[in-house]
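Form 12-C: Joint structure prediction
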Amino acid sequence: MDEFEVSPWNVSGKIDYDKLIERFGTQKLENSLLEELKNLTGDLHLFLRRNVFFSHRDFDKILNDLKNGKGFYLYTGRGPSGPMHLGHLLPFIISKWFQEKFGLNVYIEITDDEKFLHSENLDLNDTYRFSMENALDIISLGFDEDRTFIFLDSEYIRNMYKLSLRVAKKVNYSTVKAVFGFKDSTNIGMLFYPTLQIVPTFFENRRCLIPEAIDQDPYWRIQRDIAESLGHYKASVIHSKFLPPLTGIEGKMSSSMPETAIYLNDSPDIVKRKIMKYAFSGGQATVEEHRKLGGNTDVDVAFQWLYMMFEEDDRRIKDLEQGYRKGEILTGEMKSILIEKINGFLVDFRNRREKYRDRLDRFMYDGKLAEKMWETFYDR
Amino acid sequence: MDEFEVSPWNVSGKIDYDKLIERFGTQKLENSLLEELKNLTGDLHLFLRRNVFFSHRDFDKILNDLKNGKGFYLYTGRGPSGPMHLGHLLPFIISKWFQEKFGLNVYIEITDDEKFLHSENLDLNDTYRFSMENALDIISLGFDEDRTFIFLDSEYIRNMYKLSLRVAKKVNYSTVKAVFGFKDSTNIGMLFYPTLQIVPTFFENRRCLIPEAIDQDPYWRIQRDIAESLGHYKASVIHSKFLPPLTGIEGKMSSSMPETAIYLNDSPDIVKRKIMKYAFSGGQATVEEHRKLGGNTDVDVAFQWLYMMFEEDDRRIKDLEQGYRKGEILTGEMKSILIEKINGFLVDFRNRREKYRDRLDRFMYDGKLAEKMWETFYDR
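Section 2 - Result
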């Protein structure tokens, strides 16, 4: 059981995602469901076509609510413990895709309280600074400023606190101990925090879909146990895999080891150097051997990143895979392709980010949805 | 050890207040301290002259801060679980006395969150209703509307949350388990709540004095352990005894047994009936025996209430005591004196209450201190 671990505060080992579905009691995101979605949207996002989102809870009910016209809303979040890297973008990119396809509201919680409480070395000043930087990163992906509300827990608490009390009254220490592995030495802020991650699942009187990395699933187990007794819907979730660390396909990228990740503000030179130097190769020891034996795309991080995120073209990704396996494409070539893709993405991203800088207030305070949310005090 | 129990959620048995000082590790409120205070004020409130406030933490430091001109502020609170009775008024009456003597700021926390979380049968609607009724009761004692801020946790959370996180980060489950007797079945709202009772002790950059019934002391043990590490003062506290229940001097008045208490809205007839019917007598079985043997003022609740709260005149209370002990005053006479005093107090109180009704907003939102407090977001 312990060859890998996935929890909100630790991801390590080589993750077996099929086993994780079993362990967490979630459902595989089957092709039949994706086909149903495709019938409604016309196409499927790369993350769905390539099983980056691989697991779900009640996604079938979301599809039903789409078909019967009730609709749904999206909710996801970010723990502002530092600058964001590419792996952090997955839930936001897919949320934006859903928003565009169906004109949906998106709620993005910045959990500055949780990060402050959890990190010995983070002060509230730090979490505030990261919150604002991260929020700008997120909206720059192209969210709709009148249909997206991005909020800091420490600010929006005034509208959420009463509802968080209703949640808290339903959850005892035994439960959070069992679900999150909290201990007697856990601070009482961490013990209460789960209520604030749960509250946004009750923001609208319809089902919410949470696109998130699978490590966040424990919160929704509690949410789904208590939601109906509070007169709300159980959360629906789609779970993503982790974009593997540059240095190898175990665990997830770590902020304490910058060589494992590409940050959104890494310059083209740094991107190039990191990938050339650190990206774990699935190739052979020499060019000659590689030409003869071929490489292993399953462990080649450059290929995996292209597959999971950066090579949109399904035909081209298949060519890259076969070429690499046959030894026609070398590791260095694969890396170069990735570098070009990432730098293209990041240049575009940073240009957009500059334009979004003075629009952050729209998403946080005075856009159409934000304004409505600041007027809404959640009590039940 | 267990012949009586005093905790924030249970008070029972015949309380030995000297033992409680030992058990809680507080200090006796010695005459020498009271004399020092009297030198500054000119007189002492009944509650101080008669040892109703009998115990303290760091009250000597408060006296020093008075003498050196630094001053201090007052903080106390109310759990809005129902209508208020006479026993609930003690900390507010003494707070008002201190406010008048020294022109001090008073902060009054209405802990609607805690009462909702703790009481199976209270909804947030109930705690809100009681909060507003109780707040009006409290200010009607005659507080200064520009120097008093009365707030509901569920509303003022927006200004306290960040500081409550700083507190929470310093307190773990072991501590609240040991201090409050919390269990695995305790809900996670109750586990976090102590942070919000602690935050107001950091409202000003000087010492705060908390006049409260002794059952609230556990909170200040935690506060005093962490205050200095957060750059604040340890709380000073003066602890009151409980006004004994009408029905006998054990435990405290209970909302679930209305015959044990006089409520602020009890009519003169009800006051009369309750005292005549229920007030535990220290007298003898017959008038004849009483005339011969005399009564016991230590257990006679009518006398105790006069002594602790309603007979201001020190000479008169001595006469009443001696008269009763000698059998010259009968139980019925003692009760009549008390009934007259209480009804006089309550009629005045309710007249003032009507006048204060439209001034509650001054204390909560737009008086001088309240306005300043709503503009202050406590972060450290």
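Section 3 - Comments
Chain A has a mean pLDDT of 96. Strands of chain A lie at 4-7, 10-13, 27-28, 53-57, 73-78, 106-110, 148-152, 208-213, 236-240.
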